[in-house]
Design a protein that fits this description.
Length: 259
């Protein structure tokens, strides 16, 4: 499997769209409070995307009806925004933003706390963010895709959480979901070797209970089978000569943008 590396010109475009996607997540964070609907969050993001002169990649992607994904509590990913879904104190919500600018994609998500969630839910969210960061720190030329999965799986399981297997990170560029698949579990030294210029997402989904998930009859919404909490964090990453660069970096990230 030959994986494309990006040219310097392509990398500039990936940086530009990554910044926009990060800015959108920062913007929507200020809107998240008890009483707002996920449908309203979608409209706010859609309008912001227009102001950014960008395109919301999810809208009409394989029939997805909205501009962002909003996944609350036991929803793992691909939650469809709705005016009927009102956030309440103690919820956790993942907002997943993918923008297209100049033909290139930037894909990033974060799990937000609504008011004051239970200690367990907050610990899950924090552990999932740590899984993402530990896996990003494993990214460098000569490392393997399995190193990423290993970093995530070991940290999640050390904290007695489980890793969702059915969905993975992905190569990204002019194509939204490209090769390679970036698994969130695995063994060090296995899988493809990383080379400078590769761009892909890492987007661990970590469950408080069992790893099993199912898709609802709407054909999009993925939930935990045991209906326990689940969290997800996602960044779009570039492999550099020395390590990694987070293309969708935000001011609230607690890892260095480059390593
Ligand atoms: N942004 C998601 C990802 O991280 C994909 C969403 S596809 C959609 O890959 F159609 F549900 F929007
Ligand atoms: Co993604
Ligand atoms: Co995403």
């Amino acid at each position: 499997m030959a994986i494309n590396t990006k040219t310097p010109d392509e990398i500039e475009k990936m940086r530009a769209v990554g910044v926009l996607a990060g800015e959108q997540l920062e913007m929507i964070g200020d809107c998240i409070e008890p009483g707002i609907s996920t449908g309203e969050l979608d409209r706010i993001c859609h309008e912001f995307t227009e102001k950014q002169n960008a395109i919301p990649a999810p809208l009409n992607y394989r029939g997805f009806p909205k501009s962002i994904c909003t996944s609350v509590n036991h929803v793992v990913c691909h939650g469809i925004p709705s005016d009927d879904k009102i956030l309440k104190n103690g919820d956790i919500i993942n907002i997943d933003v993918t923008l297209i600018k100049d033909g290139y994609h930037g894909d990033t998500s974060k799990t937000f706390l609504v008011g004051k969630p239970k200690v367990m839910a907050e610990r899950l969210v924090k552990t999932c963010q740590e899984c993402l960061y530990l896996s990003i720190e494993a990214v460098k030329p000569g490392a393997h895709l399995g190193d990423i999965g290993y970093a995530i799986q070991t940290h999640a399981e050390k904290n007695r959480f489980s890793v969702v297997r059915e969905y993975c990170g992905h190569g990204i560029g002019t194509i939204f979901h490209d090769e390679p698949q970036v698994l969130h579990y695995g063994e060090t030294g296995t899988g493809m070797e990383l080379r400078p210029g590769m761009t892909f997402t890492i987007e661990p989904m970590i469950n408080a209970g069992k790893a099993e998930v199912k898709v609802l009859p709407d054909a999009w919404t993925v939930v935990t089978k045991d209906h326990k909490y689940t969290a997800q964090w996602e960044h779009t990453i570039l492999v550099t000569e020395t390590g990694y660069e987070i293309l969708t970096y935000r001011s609230d990230d607690t890892i260095k943008r480059c390593g």
